[in-house]
Amino acid sequence: MNDLLKFTIDAHGGLDNWKKFKNISAHLKIGGVTWAFKQVPGIMDDINVLSSTTKQHVSFYPFLKEDWHNTFEAHKVAIIDDNDLLVDQLYFPRNSFKGYVTETPWSKLQVTYFSGYAMWTYLNAPFCLAEPGYEVKELEPWTENGEVLRRLHVTFPEDIATHGREQVFYIDETGLLKRHDYNVEILNNAASVHYAADYTEVQGIKFPTNRHVYKRNEDNTALVPAPLFISIELSDIKLN
User: Fold this and answer.
1) Which of 62, 116, 217, 230 is deepest in the core (most CB within 10 A)?
2) What angle do CA 98, 73, 162 make, to 5 degrees?
């Protein structure tokens, strides 16, 4: 394993401890301008998430109605009621974004796809980066607000749904992830800076409880404080 990746995984609780768990659940409050811009305001304001640690599978609940939830897999998304009756579904959801521009609205199933792969990536990193198929290498350090951050460039496997195959993780001197850069392919390739903060420890695993996503400038700085693309507050995090 890459030395920086091992250092980071150990700082977040260690791979052996992580492999004890199959699922992560949490309560989320999600904001930012993206949802209104895509004509789905409030859709993720106050919601629960259940994410697998062993495969790409995520569910949010309640979704749209009190007795509905959604499910995300890399090649299928669905909306289901509490009687397990299918409300709607979409196979190969990434293909549905072809031809979209920044202003194109999203359907509820497209929201499911975006939110599903995004939260799976956020909740499973850095541990998933040690899985087969991920290519990692250390880049030159980056200094931000007087803090020197080490950087890990990651190429994701083609069969993993995520923002884009090339992503960069920024790691502080303690080994914690502080920043995450990516281009959102399905959002007109939006260059984004994702800050993670306010870590908490759950059963030996460390999670940031506040996340904020901003535009990334051409010089690799973040356009802060506005516009805030997405904000995520996590609470009641559980592992089982």
Assistant:
1) 116
2) 55
